[in-house]
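Retro notes (design track)

What went well: tokenization of the new backbones is finally stable.
What didn't: we kept losing track of which sequence belonged to which structure.
Fix going forward: every design gets posted as structure first, then sequence, in one message. First example under the new rule, 301 residues:
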């Protein structure tokens, strides 16, 4: 009995020693990577090396522990089966989240720095763990905000200041939208109501001129990304050149301008366009249409 007690006590110390050595090696690797990259938290190579090291350390600890405590291979197989079944039942959410983590890594769904929408949250990926993803939340356009929950007070694609944690199992439940992974551009639209009596040709020319000035250079930058999509997926994307579309309404002519911009900084671009359009419309004597009501007062006879 004493002999078995000493053997068990020795295995405990051996397990602690091996686990400590693996953890120490893991920490030394992380410290070495920080020194090489000067602590850059958004270096993607460092991030994935850190993730792989953490996963490898976990596997090594589990394998070493099993090798120390289980002498019979048949018992080891039975033990692994029982442990796996127990974990799957008791921690289904965690197991699914970990499976989601593996799918994210293998399928290249997203990585740190990508702008995504996941679990109803829009924003930039700050970190990706075994079970959870942390996202720096951003706002959304008003027409989108009205349709989704939770609501958002920031009416554009800019940071709200909230950091949201989403479990990785969400990738199995709903689509994951990636705004920057392989095509870091987005087609944006602006809708401007123009009175029927205005000079429509002049209004259209002004609008296209303002948009092209504000988006100068973006079309050339997007050409390589569009060619990559075509070569890899056979997807034919439309040109990044600004275009206008007219729509007849009961009150005015609605002109829509469609243009290509990088996913980051859209609000600044639209602000420049709006300011330029207002200035040019005013100089050309073109007003912005609005809903009006005419009230007629009849004199008493």
């Amino acid at each position: 009995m004493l002999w078995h007690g000493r053997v068990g006590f020795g295995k405990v110390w051996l397990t602690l020693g091996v686990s400590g050595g693996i953890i120490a090696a893991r920490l030394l690797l992380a410290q070495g990577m920080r020194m090489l990259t000067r602590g850059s938290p958004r270096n993607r190579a460092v991030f994935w090396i850190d993730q792989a090291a953490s996963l490898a350390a976990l596997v090594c600890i589990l394998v070493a522990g099993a090798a120390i405590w289980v002498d019979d291979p048949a018992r080891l197989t039975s033990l692994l089966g029982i442990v796996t079944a127990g974990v799957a039942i008791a921690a289904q959410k965690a197991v699914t989240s970990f499976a989601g983590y593996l799918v994210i890594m293998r399928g290249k769904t997203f990585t740190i720095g990508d702008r995504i929408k996941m679990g109803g949250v829009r924003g930039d990926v700050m970190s990706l763990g075994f079970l959870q993803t942390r996202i720096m939340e951003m706002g959304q356009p008003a027409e989108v905000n009205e349709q989704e929950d939770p609501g958002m007070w920031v009416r554009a694609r800019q940071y709200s200041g909230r950091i949201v944690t989403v479990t990785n199992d969400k990738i199995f439940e709903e689509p994951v939208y990636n705004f920057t992974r392989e095509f870091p551009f987005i087609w944006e639209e602006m809708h401007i109501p123009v009175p029927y009596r205005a000079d429509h040709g002049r209004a259209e020319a002004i609008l296209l001129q303002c948009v092209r000035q504000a988006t100068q250079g973006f079309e050339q930058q997007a050409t390589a990304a569009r060619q990559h999509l075509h070569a890899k997926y056979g997807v034919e994307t439309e040109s990044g050149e600004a275009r206008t579309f007219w729509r007849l309404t009961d009150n005015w002519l609605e002109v829509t301008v469609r243009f290509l911009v990088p996913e980051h900084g859209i609000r600044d671009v639209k602000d420049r366009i709006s300011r330029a359009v207002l200035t040019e419309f005013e100089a050309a004597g073109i007003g912005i249409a609005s809903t009006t009501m005419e009230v007629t007062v009849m004199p008493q006879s």
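Added context from the reviewer: The mean pLDDT is 83.
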